[in-house]
Structure formats: structure tokens, C-alpha cells
Amino acid sequence: MMVGRLLLWAILGLLAWWILRPNRKVAAPPQSRAASAGPAAAPEAMVDCAACGLHFPASEAIRDGARLYCCTAHRDAGPRRGE
Prior knowledge:
Helices cover 35% and strands 14% of the residues. It is an alpha+beta fold. The strands form two sheets. It has a two-stranded antiparallel ribbon. A two-stranded antiparallel sheet has the order 3-4. It is rod-shaped and about 90 Å long. It starts with a helix and ends in a 6-residue tail after the last helix. The mean pLDDT is 82.
């Protein structure tokens, strides 16, 4: 019975020491992909598809004259939205 109490106090003491120790290291939050990639890139212009109205980056646009499409299927089908 005396050994059980001694063991309990030893465990409580170690737990209190572990929680209250002054030089406890705190894990640094992981860096986001954007922060680790270096300088931030300039935002890209967004455009909408002439057929379905989907917004997407201008660099991914498929052009047919002055109209922009999100895919070749919409370009081949022709304008449907607001013809």
C-alpha cells in the first residue's frame, strides 16, 4: 500500500514537472506552400467562357477570335451564353 502511494506521487510529480518545465520547446507551425515557394507571384487575370460562363485563368483560355473558351468542346460547339 505504501509503494502504491509512492508510485502515484512519483507519477504526479513527473507529470507536473513535464507540464511546468520552463524550457519546453513548442513545435513550429509548418510553412505553407506559398510561403516556401519564394516571392509571391502576381495575381493572374480571370476570364469567363463564352459558352458556359465558367471563370478560369486567362493563361488557360482557348481563343477563337475575340471569344475565350474553357475547353475545345465549348469552342467547337460555338457560343451559347448570351449569343
